[in-house]
Amino acid sequence: QVQLVESGGGLVQAGGSLRLSCTASIPTFSNYAMGWFRQAPGKERERVGVITGSGRGTSYADSVKGRFTISRDNTKNTVFLQMNSLKPEDTAVYYCASYSSSTWFSGSTNSWGQGTQVTVSS
Question: How confident is the model at residue 2 (pLDDT cuts 50, 70, 90)?
């Protein structure tokens, strides 16, 4: 049973920064792509950023390009989401997810964390 545990959420003012972390209990962590998703109240879940197993490939939602950066440390089974220049519309529960393959485009999500709340005040 894969476990994903997120941390780092909280309350921040607009223009501020937060760094989310997600630690995975996956024995061969570097074999799998990882992603960050978010869901705001009344809205559909949105994919924010994804990263290949090696960490060399990334992709972002247009809404966060240039502000958010996804990265990973395969020695620590951890994926990060650095969020800068935060806006009130970034307020949501953020989830990390693992994929079934080393790239997001050749696999699908198969495990999810419990989520961490990010609230951006104006």
Answer: confident
